[in-house]
Predict the 3D structure of the following.
Amino acid sequence: MTSGEEQPRVVIRDKRRIDPISGEVRAPAGEQPAGAGPATPPGPTVAGEQMSEHDMPVEDQAPEPVAAGGGDDLAQQLAERTEDLQRVTAEYANYRRRVDRDRTVVVDQAAERFAAGLFPIVDDIERARDHGDLTGAFKLVADRVLGLLDGLGVEAFGVAGDAFDPSLHEAVMHDTSPDVAVPTATTVLRQGFRRGERVLRTAMVAVTDPENPVPAGDGAAPADPDAAASG
């Protein structure tokens, strides 16, 4: 055989009916197994395309069980957060009360200081009234000043004939008289002022004491001599 002659090709055909790799039954050439779909051209198999018989889609997988004791931990955390919220709410309420109380104190102190600055002017007004000089434009100004005190809730006290009260009156003179049964402010030298229950300035008065004061603690009526004799 010369070198120019073409050598015959050797063709080996695998006619085994059982696939040695997959173990499936092979269909004869040109045929497809009954019920099979369209033939799929052979091609390389991509890794991960096929799922094993034990694999399931993600949506079909069962949810992981909650760890034991997880519900107790959540309940404890909720109780702690609730307690913290209640504590913060109480602290804020106390803070608001303190702020309101301090604001009220500041307003009261400012009103009292302003009123105290008007007291000397009111004394001059009262002296002018006693002398009959409270007329014309002076009376108009006096009424406005007294109106300021009324607006602040300040009222004057101290009238001749009031029973002497050390918490309200400042005694600068003393005398005695049979016409009074208890110490009495008979003359008011200077009016006092108070705002609510708080005394801003005591009244300056002259006090008249009774000539025969009743001894302290001697409140019993004198015994009837006829009753004592019959007993």
